[in-house]
Amino acid sequence: VLLDSPCSSIGTIRKHPEILFRSKKPNFTKLNKLQKDLLRKSANLVKNKGKIINIGGGAGAWEKPLRTFMIGGAVNAALNHFSKSLALQGKIDKVSVSTINPGMTLTGRLKKLLKAESKVTKKSTSQILKERSKAAKITRPTKPEEIANLVYKLIKDKNSNGKIIKIDGGKVKL
Length: 174
Fold this sequence. Notes:
By secondary structure, the protein is of the alpha/beta class. The chain has six helices and five strands; from the N terminus they run βααβαβαααββ.
């Protein structure tokens, strides 16, 4: 089971706090509960020799704590802890649980955010992407296919249980 839990947009809020003042605010408690429920249900689907690969987030795992990102970091840290706990149970149930924590990834969602920011700032999307990459101390965002390749490696890896892997700017770190 490949689990890409619903995103709470916390990373976006860190850079665009005006999101919190919109009429429909993200319900972080509800999203956190949904993420945990999905992990639990995934564990039931793969009983006896299955694999769960959770796609998490960098905050709370390896990104530097920020005053403006307390909730997001706490939610991501809780999911990593929960995944580690599931991995311990997985040893008993013969279920492998691992987590990939990607940094900035060039998804359709990111491209839409870049376009929206471009309209507001009158900068090109490539200029904004360069600025964000520099701020994140990476040369470029991770490509979705790089995450897919990492998922494939974890599927093949017989010793992947409990691994939490960082991928940022296309670079993998254990």
